[in-house]
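So, is this right?
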Amino acid sequence: MTVSGQDSNLYAVEFMKRIAVPDCGADPAAYGDDRPAGIGLCGRATRENCGLMFKRRFSGLLFIAALLGASVAAFAQQNELPPLPPLTDPATAQHIPGKFVWADLFTSDMDAARTFYSQLFGWEWRWVSDPPHPYGIFYKDGFAVAGLAFRKADGQEREYGRWAHYISVADVAAMEAAIIEKGGRALLPKRSLPNRGDFAILATPDEAVIGIIHSSSGDPGDYRPEVGEFLWHELFTRDVTAAAEFYESLFGYEVLEKADTAEIVDYFLASGEHSRGGIGSLSPESDTVPTWLGYIRVDNVDQAVERVKALGGEVLVAPDPANINGDLAIVADPVGTPIGLIRWEFPEEQEAQQ
């Protein structure tokens, strides 16, 4: 595995200041709001600030360990799928391998999830299909953010909830085979739907759940996430070096090493001049299953946390001045599914307020 330690020191320091506009030869205006309606937006964070996770490791990680490790068995329950809509509408002519382009929440209580996320983030709900294969999509200001699907809890669980985050790949079948060859397993083997494209859900060798997709309508661009959209993704696992090598070798990420402090996230994964996600450590004593955690951008973390409590959710990691100035929290929906909250201002937004 090759890493760029010197650069990542700079990224971590830059993160504490701001997320910068990417310097990748594109007009910065292209990263504003001029985007196709219905597009799913995820994860515009640049390599100049690959430290979008934390200057200080949040102290509540051990507290949420058990909740992060929901069983992966329910992903394999359903062989038939509803007629999923296109990932982007209108279609784009681009594919961005390595980019997180979509997220689905699998839950045993769709009604509770619809109410919770709609009221927490101001998401609009639209049904796509009815039972026996119910599926719907959350929208924010007309842009698709995430899907919601029913999964029955297994015999050992009272309730079930888990997010699956999808990475764009060039060839789903080839990537599925490569993950299995490395010790992973298919939870939902490759499916092909005319409007959605090819996709699969797998457990990686450390049992973390990841989705892979090659969209038939193209990928959303590297737009700046607005409030109410996914801003960041991070994998929590025990063997961070093995995980970094896995994602580097299969997904082609550039691995950026942590800065010279044990409190920085261990590795950052970058592609196409953008950071795509981070890898952080789970406690060796924890028996939780490794997981990817997504973070939604909010305009006020304290207010969002109060809404979580009012809506029947739980605060797992409360805002703390030691964690990016109190602008981060981790919460759980009424079923117990964790999701991250983060307040973030881009440089142009800061300048507009001055």
Q: What stands out?
A: The CA atoms of residues 53 and 265 lie 6 Å apart.
